[in-house]
Specification:
Blueprint: H1 2-22, E1 24-29, E2 35-38, E3 44-46, E4 61-66, E5 69-70, H2 92-105, H3 111-127, H4 136-145, E6 149-154, H5 159-167, E7 172-177, E8 193-201, E9 205-209, E10 218-223, H6 224-230, H7 245-248, E11 255-261
Antiparallel strand pairs: 1-4, 2-3, 2-6, 5-8, 6-11, 7-8, 7-11, 8-9, 9-10
Length: about 260
């Protein structure tokens, strides 16, 4: 009898230690119907994700994810040579895309190379009819066409959804009302509109590559809710007479999920 009790005790200790070793959390996300992808003809379509493990009638899926992670996306500054004149003042979209592209292709990230990359991308965008500021859906298109990366939009903008995508190895680019971020390293009040890369998370913060600084943006941490509250997309119609702080906060909540080379 004592032997049986001892074996049961050892079994429970084993389970406890195993659980501690895994260091995971369970989140609920909607990965079946809440994702839209940009097709080659620029039409937004529902992504038919059939992964419905542990899903319920609301489309929510319970997924086990690490308690913390960092994908190690290379940091890129939108002013790699510390020149904040035009066009670098408006290069957050380009720098964010280049940062994620470097994660997948492992190409050089020295300042001169990044500078050439930004200027080449801006030249391509101008020739292809893009404006200085790009919306999230336009960034998806650029990631697909210029970088040949598989990218999509998600409208389920929650901390759990962001963590889930990161746990799948997918960096996130988010469009934000820049002044809502409260980054102390921004000049002045900060940008009205700003894009940055989310590369990981810990127990309280998202770990980002905030391209809007020269050296302080790598692994910059924002509280979960700060990021969620600040996410607002660019709207070209609202920006016709210049975008105001009130107008940028009217932008939709979407995020860009970059899954890698799928071509």
């Amino acid at each position: 009898m004592k032997k049986i009790i001892f074996l049961i005790f050892c079994f429970f200790i084993f389970l406890l230690l195993s659980a501690c070793g895994r260091q995971t959390n369970v989140v609920s996300v909607n990965i079946n119907s809440d994702v839209i992808a940009q097709s080659d003809d620029d039409a937004l379509q529902t992504n038919g994700n059939n992964n419905n493990t542990n899903s319920n009638s609301d489309g929510l899926v319970k997924v086990e994810i690490p308690t913390q992670l960092d994908l190690g996306v290379p940091f890129v500054s939108q002013a790699p040579l510390q020149n904040w004149d035009m066009p670098y003042q408006e290069a957050c979209e380009e720098a964010s895309m280049i940062s994620v592209a470097k994660f997948y292709d492992h190409s050089p990230t020295d300042s001169n190379t990044i500078d050439q990359n930004i200027l080449a991308l801006m030249d391509w965008e101008e020739k292809n009819g893009y404006k200085i500021d790009a919306s999230a859906s336009e960034v998806v298109g650029i990631l697909q066409k210029y970088f040949k990366l598989n990218a999509r939009l998600a409208t389920e903008v929650t901390a759990d959804r962001i963590k889930y995508e990161l746990s799948q190895g997918n960096p996130i680019i988010v469009p934000t009302a820049g002044r809502m971020l409260g980054n102390p390293y921004f000049s002045g009040d900060g940008p009205i509109y700003h894009m940055l890369v989310i590369r990981g998370y810990d127990s309280k913060n998202f770990i980002t590559n905030d391209v809007g600084t020269n050296t302080k943006g790598e692994k910059f941490k924002y509280k979960y809710q700060v990021i969620i509250n600040a996410i607002h997309d660019w709207d070209h119609a609202l920006a016709e007479d210049g975008m105001t702080e009130a107008e940028i906060m009217m932008g939709e909540k979407v995020m860009i999920v970059v899954e890698g080379n799928n071509y």
